[in-house]
Design brief:
Layout: H1 4-15, H2 19-22, H3 36-52, H4 58-64, H5 78-126, H6 140-152, H7 165-171, E1 179-184, H8 190-204, E2 208-212, H9 217-229, H10 233-238, H11 243-253, E3 263-265, H12 274-284, E4 288-292, H13 308-325, E5 329-334, H14 355-359, E6 362-368, E7 374-382, E8 388-396, E9 399-403
Parallel strand pairs: 1-5, 1-6, 2-3, 2-4, 4-5
Antiparallel strand pairs: 6-7, 7-8, 8-9
Helix pairs in contact: 1-5, 8-9, 9-11, 12-13
Organism: Streptomyces vulcanius
Protein name: DnaB-like helicase C-terminal domain-containing protein
Domain SF4 helicase: 153-410
């Protein structure tokens, strides 16, 4: 079996892409290679690139290091491999540091141990994924490229479409590192809207992972199937389905939905904490994660759930998940009816903690209106759009979303 270090070297040699590994995003140096043999190979790749402007081919590496085991099979995408390398290095720093701190403590007491402990902590923190520094002063040209791209394609979506034109126009899509909070009172169609977003993400080519603390898988699948086949999900349960609807259902479900997986986890116990969600992300590599009923998550720090401190830590933890994994995190959480005043749902309606409003890049509220099936979708808070609202109809016979006309210029 090849190691992660060998897989990274194989990736560079086979694709010629060294920039992803050693560039700002990858942040890998020879220090990340703990095995002396692979470290030697990686050093020689860097030296080759410095001399000739490009990384060596597998043939060149093979000539200098005949025993190096190239592997075309990789245990995950390059982003995963790089994160594993960072993790491996941080573990080693902590492991060695703890040993040294323990020895110092035995010999010279806390006074001797403390400086070592601080040093180990500083090293482990700077080696952390996501703590890579950027030289703002030197990178204007790179940002200019990004701005030029935006100027040449005005209004183009920057992320995954939500399935709602109103939201897409306001946000330009759900982007990596963002945390999006969908809120509302009980039964305000939060889950239904989130399921709509998961489908939109899937159709766009994203690989969603859905964790629901609100609904069992069968019910989620029925609701998704209902919207897909345009048959009321209730009928799929009762069996009272017409011949025409059955044909629609068959046409919708006989073939796989698409090429990539759409994963729903039933392992709620395993996904109950931020660390549990991180493990799921590590195992399943989704490109976007949806958590339905995030207020049910258990906070490992306070060892509580649904208390103000627990919810604050969970909100912070979810945002960290988005940042560290470079994926969008979309969650639903309930608002409190006694926090809904004359203005209706606001960002303060989330209750218990102000963390959701502070940590989220976008807070979307769903509010029932006096009219059946008509809901107000509100941008309650957004880092890059003003508060605004829009009427959405969610009907069930057949199931469909309909939006009032969107006046803004749409990106598509
Ligand atoms: N098959 C159906 N036909 C008609 N109405 C339905 C159907 N399924 C759900 N609804 C309505 O949709 C609303 C619930 O939607 P949803 O579960 O998305 O809300 P929610 O805000 O996520 O609820 P919760 O408080 O459980 O988190 C309810 O008003 C319910 O009556």
């Amino acid at each position: 079996m090849t190691s992660i270090e060998e897989e990274v070297i194989s990736y560079v040699a086979l694709t010629g892409d060294l920039d992803t590994v050693v560039g700002q995003a990858g942040g890998i140096t020879t220090d990340h290679f703990l095995d002396p043999e692979t470290r030697k190979v990686f050093s020689s790749i860097l030296a080759f690139k410095a001399d000739f402007g490009e990384p060596p081919t597998p043939e060149v590496i093979h000539r200098d290091h005949p025993n190096f085991p190239f592997s075309e099979d990789s245990s995950g995408p390059i982003e995963y491999l790089l994160r594993e390398l960072h993790e491996q290095r941080r573990r080693t720093i902590i492991d060695l540091g703890m040993g040294a701190v323990g020895e110092a403590l035995d010999r010279g007491g806390s006074e001797a141990a403390l400086p070592l402990l601080r040093m180990m902590l500083a090293q482990a923190t700077t080696a952390a994924v996501g703590s890579r520094e950027v030289d703002y002063a030197a990178t204007g040209a790179q940002r200019l490229d990004v701005y030029r791209q935006a100027r040449d394609n005005p209004g183009e979506l920057l992320g995954i479409p939500t399935g709602f034109k109103f939201l897409d126009a306001a946000t330009l899509g759900i982007q990596p590192q963002q945390m999006i909070v969908l809120t509302g009172l009980a039964k305000s169609c939060k889950t239904t809207v989130m399921l709509g977003m998961t489908r939109s993400a899937y159709d766009y080519g994203a690989k969603p992972l859905l964790v629901s603390f609100e609904m069992p898988y069968q019910e989620i699948a029925r609701r998704l199937d209902g919207f897909l086949a345009r048959v009321n999900p209730k009928k799929l349960q009762t069996g009272q389905i017409s011949a025409k609807e059955w044909r629609q259902l068959e046409a919708a479900l006989t073939d796989p939905l698409g090429e990539q997986p759409y994963i729903v986890t039933e392992d709620r116990a395993g996904a109950m904490t931020i660390a549990g969600l991180q493990t799921k992300i590590d195992q399943l590599s989704p490109s976007v994660i949806f958590v339905d009923g995030a207020y049910f998550l258990f906070d490992e720090i306070s060892r509580e759930s649904q208390t103000p401190i627990a919810l604050t830590n969970i909100s912070r933890g979810l945002k960290r998940l988005a940042l560290n994994n470079d994926i969008p995190v979309v969650v639903t959480t309930q608002s409190l009816s006694h926090k809904v005043g004359a203005k209706g749902l606001t960002v303060n309606s989330l209750g218990y903690t102000s963390a959701w409003g502070q940590d989220a890049d976008l807070v979307v509220g769903m509010e029932a209106t006096d009219e059946d099936f008509i809901y107000r979708m509100k941008v309650l808070a957004s880092r890059n759009a003003p508060p605004q609202e829009h009427l959405i109809s969610i009907s069930w016979e057949p199931p469909q979303f309909e939006e009032a006309e969107v006046e803004a210029d749409l990106p598509y």
